[in-house]
Amino acid sequence: MACPYFFPMEPRAQAGQDAMLPLGDAWAGVCRADPDRPWQPDEATLRPLCNLGYARGSCARFPAADGPDAVRFAVSDDDGACLRIYLVVERDHLPFAHGPLEYSRAKGAFAEPPPDETISRQAQAYVESYLRRKSEALER
To answer: What pLDDT score was predicted for residue 137?
Structure first.
């Protein structure tokens, strides 16, 4: 579950990719917990807090409000043309918001991306990681 305030920008090269990461890969990016002051997380913060979420109480930048704690994605169907993903935004390990997303491979875009720009970018990062891993598996 990625932090709901983490805006992933580029995958990080890692020895032994970890498909169990919420976005499929480790990502570098920007913290948007304070939208007026985006922050570049350091190495010690990226994986345990930004990439893995549930940073409330562990991250000094995490908002005190009753917002979400984490975001998770799961592929529900992949027919080759359309990738269907289910999005769950969590608070205290319970659904805070959820819903389906549909990604067109031909268009390279979601039919209706999530309205939140950060979560929309996380969904795109998840798709990029998924498609990369799938392509690598087919090449073997």
So the answer is: 84
Q: How far is CA 108 from CA 21, 53, 59, 83, in A?
A: 22, 27, 34, 10
Is 138 a residue whose pLDDT tops 60?
A: yes
Instruction: Report pLDDT for 15.
Output: 46
- What is the spatial distance between Cα 76 and Cα 45, in angstroms, rounded to a whole number? 30
Q: Is 56 exposed, middle or buried (0-12, 13-18, 19+ CB in 10 A)?
A: middle
Contact assessment for residue 102 and residue 35, using Cβ atoms and an 8 Å cutoff? no
For every residue of 53-67, which 3-state class applies, written as one string? CCCCCCCCCCCCCCC
Q: Determine the Cα–Cα distance for residues 110 and 76; give it in Å rounded to an integer.
A: 15
Q: Which residue has the tokens 């922050």?
A: 39
- pLDDT tens digits for 11-58? 986 645 565 788 988 999 999 999 899 999 998 899 899 998 889 999
**Cβ of 57: how many Cβ atoms within 10 Å?**
7
